């Protein structure tokens, strides 16, 4: 009897295990059906219109608004250098001194000649005064007076010429002290004290740069220029921002904005480009003549549709995204890209519109018609 009971119990136990196994299999099957009904959990982005900027960069060279070559107006030995390279100077401040002794002597000779001509003029005037009563009393003929008057005019002209020569000598003497014509920073000074300097020297004594304001010269292609001219007048959308930025050599963006205020007016036939000029304030004189940088132009999209680049796939040079339908099934849709800003694409409004939902990751897991369980930042979204 005990053996029979033991056998019955084993049979009963096996039946219970089989029942549990079948129940477990049923639960797993239900879970798979639930997952399949809810769809594949993937991050989804709901699109909206927002402001965006498309950037264009052009290499530029920087110059001060005033770059004055300082050259001697007279020849002579350089006697004094009053300033140093890189020093900021004010308009009218002495910069260099050329030996003035020869010019002082020339001025003295010219002034002496002036005094001589003045004496000749006084003599001619005295002769006129002497002859006038004699002519009136008909003691001498009027022909004598005509000759004397001519001598007076010659003396008068000679005096004027002597005074002009003296004025020129005085100007030359003043030119021996070379002064700053504008405010600015001193450039390199290739000459040293004792060198002979001439008006005909190929190299200037220095270049004085006024860099409180600077110009940045840059070039763009003919097609870019035509597009720029059209878009800067567009007041509704895709407008080119009239303010431009300057990216410095270290990659930082200059803290002052500038404006494009001039262009060369003609296309360079050899390069097919046109040169433009942007104007910037430079109150701290951070920027100097000879610096380089990049002009940054921005085209403003006030109502742009932006999507992450990672949300797109490429098939035969065409871009696609997966758009979620109301029932959360995925639809592959071709998009038209108008530009790129950072790691995002600016998409044409004909491709996508506000409130569209696109899958942003896991694109390799899905295909047309697959159901998606939307998530955002790791959280499940409520289904529509």
Let me know the number of strands.
22
Strand order of the largest sheet: 2-9-13-12-11-14
Name the structural class.
alpha+beta
Tally of DSSP helical segments: 4
Quote the average pLDDT: 84
Q: What oligomeric state is this?
A: single chain
List segments where confidence is low: pLDDT < 50 over at least 5 consecutive residues: 17-22, 24-35, 377-384
Main beta-sheet annotation: 6 strands, antiparallel, barrel
Radius of gyration: 45 Å
Shape: elongated
Helical content band: 25-40%
Q: Secondary-structure element sequence?
A: HEEEEEHHEEEEHEEEEEEEEEEEEE
Topology diagram in text:
Elements: H1 2-38, E1 40-46, E2 49-70, E3 76-81, E4 88-89, E5 94-98, H2 101-136, H3 142-174, E6 177-179, E7 184-186, E8 196-197, E9 206-221, H4 222-231, E10 239-240, E11 243-248, E12 258-263, E13 273-281, E14 292-308, E15 313-315, E16 318-324, E17 330-335, E18 337-341, E19 344-347, E20 357-359, E21 372-376, E22 379-380
Parallel strand pairs: 1-21
Antiparallel strand pairs: 1-20, 2-9, 2-14, 3-5, 3-8, 4-7, 5-6, 7-9, 9-13, 10-14, 11-12, 11-14, 12-13, 14-19, 15-16, 16-17, 18-19, 21-22
Describe the structure.
With 384 residues, the protein is α+β, with helices and mostly antiparallel strands. 30% of the residues lie in helices and 37% in strands. The strands form 4 sheets. Strands 2-9-13-12-11-14 form a 6-stranded antiparallel barrel. It has a 4-stranded mixed beta sheet with strand order 20-1-21-22. Strands 6-5-3-8 form a 4-stranded antiparallel beta sheet, with no helix packed on it. Strand 18 (337-341) and strand 19 form a beta hairpin. Helix 2 (101-136) packs antiparallel against helix 3. 20% of the residues are buried.
């Amino acid at each position: 009897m005990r053996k029979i009971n033991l056998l019955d119990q084993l049979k009963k136990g096996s039946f219970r295990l089989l029942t549990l196994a079948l129940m477990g299999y049923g639960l797993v099957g239900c879970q798979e059906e639930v997952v399949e009904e809810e769809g594949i959990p993937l991050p989804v982005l709901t699109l909206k219109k927002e402001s965006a900027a498309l950037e264009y960069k052009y290499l530029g060279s920087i110059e001060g608004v005033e770059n004055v070559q300082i050259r001697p107006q007279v020849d002579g030995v350089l006697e004094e250098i009053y300033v140093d390279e890189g020093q900021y100077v004010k308009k009218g401040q002495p910069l260099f001194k050329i030996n003035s002794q020869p010019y002082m002597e020339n001025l003295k000779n010219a002034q002496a000649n002036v005094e001589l001509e003045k004496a000749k003029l006084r003599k001619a005037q005295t002769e006129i005064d002497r002859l006038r009563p004699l002519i009136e009393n008909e003691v001498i003929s009027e022909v004598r007076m005509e000759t004397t008057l001519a001598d007076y005019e010659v003396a008068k002209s000679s005096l004027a010429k002597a005074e002009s020569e003296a004025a020129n000598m005085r100007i030359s003497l003043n030119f021996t002290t070379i002064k700053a014509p504008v405010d600015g920073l001193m450039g390199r000074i290739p000459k040293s004290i004792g060198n002979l300097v001439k008006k005909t020297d190929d190299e200037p004594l220095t270049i004085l740069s006024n860099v409180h304001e600077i110009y940045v010269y840059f070039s763009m292609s003919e097609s870019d220029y035509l597009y720029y001219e059209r878009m800067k007048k567009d007041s509704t959308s895709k407008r080119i921002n009239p303010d431009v930025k300057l990216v410095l050599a270290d990659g930082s963006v200059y803290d002052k904005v500038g404006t494009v205020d001039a262009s060369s007016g003609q296309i360079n036939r050899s390069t097919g480009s046109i040169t433009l000029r942007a104007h910037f304030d430079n109150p701290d004189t951070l920027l100097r003549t000879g610096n380089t940088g990049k002009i940054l132009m921005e085209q403003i999209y006030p109502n742009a549709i932006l999507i992450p680049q990672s949300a797109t796939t490429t098939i035969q040079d065409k871009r696609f995204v997966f758009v979620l339908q109301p029932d959360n099934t995925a639809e592959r849709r071709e998009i038209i890209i108008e530009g790129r800003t950072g790691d995002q694409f600016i998409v044409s409004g004909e491709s996508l519109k506000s409130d569209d939902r696109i899958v942003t990751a896991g694109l390799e897991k899905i295909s047309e018609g697959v159901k998606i369980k939307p998530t955002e930042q790791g959280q499940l979204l409520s289904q529509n």
